[in-house]
Amino acid sequence: MRAALLTGYGAPLALETVPRPMPKADEVLVKIEASGVCFTDVHIWRGDHAAPDPLPLIMGHEGVGRVVALGAEGGRLKIGDRVGIGYVFGACGHCKECLTGGENYCGEFDATGFNVSGCFAEYVCMRHEWANLIPEGIAPTEAAPLMCAGAAAYASFRKTAVQPGETLAIFGLGGLGQYAVQIAKLSGVRVIAVDINAEKLLTAKALGADETVIADVQAGASIQALGGADGCVNFAPVAATWPLMLAACNPRAKIVLTGVPADQMTFYAHEVIERGLQVIGSSASNRQEMTEVLALAAGGKIKGVINQRPFDAINEALSDLINGTVEGRSVLTFE
Ligand SMILES: [Zn+2]
Ligand SMILES: [Zn+2]
């Protein structure tokens, strides 16, 4: 099969022919139709988080394709089923997190495209228990980014706990932010979109954002002038949004952190204490959240801004993501 191999951190991925994997007893073999490129892949590619095993590594954790072979266990899947592959390859299944809807916080979870081979290849093995069936009516290119970006945006939005009529400020209007705007509007929430890029704010407005604010030093005050935020969610992978969110929050607001900055976020404790703020981390999603976001997309309620390219253009897709020149999510297709 053709695969894009990470052979050295920071080096272009090598497009090579490698043996097709064989599914283990609890796995199925999936022929990939579409594979999304995520900023987590950039972190792995740069070596921000070194892979547990020696390179080469096949990255990629936003895959959609058809089941073409079953492992000995088989499970509930049949040949030909269209399934989605997300960041969590598998978790222990018996810890408190796994048993209470927090499987993506299991201390022993394996990540697709990091601990095990991922979706930047023609074929990938996945555990049948972790396969999300893709509903009819969603194209593979539309479904692929839902497996990580869409589901992570959905999980983050849920954690803000904003209610209909309340205001959510969404920081960072890349792919996750675009999904979050649509999900929040479906819930009757007033949305303030915040980004440094005016074009991304125009897209956010087109997707339903009620207000837009440029993410300069005045952003907190601008949001306060609009009534303040009852919740904030940060998808921008920078610490610079942190003081803006603190300034934007109304008392007892929740701040959900999803984008991972490289630098530290600092604050005086009284800023959080005296206003009763809550700061919550959110990483990836559980399978139920994936199912729910897929159902919204199948019903035509949310739609990704998709930048489709052939698999061979994977290195350009990565560098465009690093340079911030991609609008929405990049999805590779296989022919
Ligand atoms: Zn991802
Ligand atoms: Zn567990």
Q: Mind summarizing the main beta sheet? A: 7 strands, mixed
Count of all domains? 2
Low-confidence stretches: none
Assign a percent range to the helix content.
25-40%
**Beta strands, count:** 17
Structural class: alpha/beta
User: How do the helices and strands follow one another from N- to C-terminus?
Assistant: EEEHEEEHEEEHHEHEHEHEHEHEHEHE
Apparent shape: globular
**Residue share in β-strands:** 25-35%
For the record, what CATH class of the largest domain applies?
Alpha Beta
Bound molecules: zinc ion
Overall average residue pLDDT = 96
CATH architecture of the largest domain: Alpha-Beta Complex
Oligomeric state of the chains?
Answer: single chain
Provide an overview of this structure:
Helix 4 packs across helix 5 (175-186) and helix 4 crosses helix 10. The chain is globular. The longest helix has 12 residues, at 149-160. The chain is built from eleven helices and 17 strands. The chain has helices at residues 39-46, 96-99, 140-143, 149-160, 175-186, 198-206, 219-225, 241-248, 269-273, 287-298, 314-322, and strands at 2-5, 14-17, 27-37, 63-70, 82-85, 88-90, 110-111, 123-127, 132-133, 167-171, 190-195, 211-214, 229-234, 249-257, 278-281, 306-310, 329-333. The strands form four sheets. Strands 3, 4, 5, 8, 9, 16 and 17 form a seven-stranded mixed β-sheet that branches. Strands 12-11-10-13-14-15 form a six-stranded parallel β-sheet, with helices on both faces. A two-stranded antiparallel ribbon has the order 1-2. Helix 8 (241-248) links the parallel strand 13 and strand 14 (249-257). It is 27% helix and 26% strand. The protein is an alpha/beta fold and 335 residues long. It has two domains: 2-148 and 285-333, Quinone Oxidoreductase, Chain A, domain 1; 151-281, 3-Layer(aba) Sandwich (Rossmann fold). The chain starts with a strand and ends with a strand. One zinc ion binds at residues 38, 40, 61, 87, 148.
